[in-house]
């Protein structure tokens, strides 16, 4: 009579470990993308403090202030949150620089939020265009887009369709 084998062989255990490792390697990038995207979404509301004075300037003077000081805001490095190390206004564009506790994939990167206006009708409210997203029809986007965050990490509202 032969002895009966019990349990797993070393080869079977190694195969299971390899399969688990491959599945983990496939899941990690998905989790990273989600974490980075959630940090960007959490950081965007900081721009709201600049939107009101910028929109008011457009309505009254039909132009945007050139910088933080003219907008009535503190210097860029004083406007921060968990993920943003600076909020800079440049000719109406709100540039958020990621730093502080931001993921290493976006640390030092920038996200621009640009104003879209109806040129000959300053009474029409300013619409804000995030990142590489397209502006509404019949509106002109003002300022330069300095977004350096990869499209892969931008939330849907911050990238053009199909990107």
- Give, in order, the helices and strands: HHHEEEEE
- CA gyration radius, whole angstroms: 24 Å
- Helix residue percentage: 25-40%
CATH class: Alpha Beta
Shape: elongated
Task: Write a structural description.
- There is one protein chain.
- The chain is built from three helices and five strands; from the N terminus they run αααβββββ.
- Strands 1, 2, 3, 4 and 5 form a five-stranded antiparallel beta sheet that branches.
- It has one domain: 2-Layer Sandwich (Glycoprotein, Type 4 Pilin), CATH 3.30.700.10.
- It starts with 9 loop residues before the first helix and ends in a 22-residue tail after the last strand.
- Helices cover 32% and strands 17% of the residues.
- With 163 residues, it is α+β, with helices and mostly antiparallel strands.
- The longest helix is centred in the first third of the chain and has 34 residues, at 10-43.
């Amino acid at each position: 009579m032969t002895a009966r084998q019990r349990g797993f062989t070393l080869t079977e255990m190694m195969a299971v470990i390899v399969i688990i490792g491959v599945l983990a390697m496939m899941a990690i990038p998905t989790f990273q993308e989600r974490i980075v995207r959630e940090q960007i979404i959490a950081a965007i509301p900081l721009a709201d403090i600049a939107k009101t004075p910028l929109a008011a300037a457009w309505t009254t003077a039909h132009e945007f202030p050139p910088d933080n000081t003219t907008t009535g805001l503190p210097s860029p490095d004083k406007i921060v949150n968990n993920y943003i190390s600076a909020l800079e206004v440049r000719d109406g564009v709100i540039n958020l620089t990621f730093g502080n506790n931001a993921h290493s994939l976006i640390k030092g990167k920038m996200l621009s939020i640009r104003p879209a206006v109806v040129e000959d009708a300053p009474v029409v409210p300013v619409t804000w265009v995030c990142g590489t997203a397209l502006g509404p029809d019949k509106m002109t986007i003002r300022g330069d887009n300095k977004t350096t965050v990869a499209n892969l990490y931008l939330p849907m509202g911050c990238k053009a369709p199909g990107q």
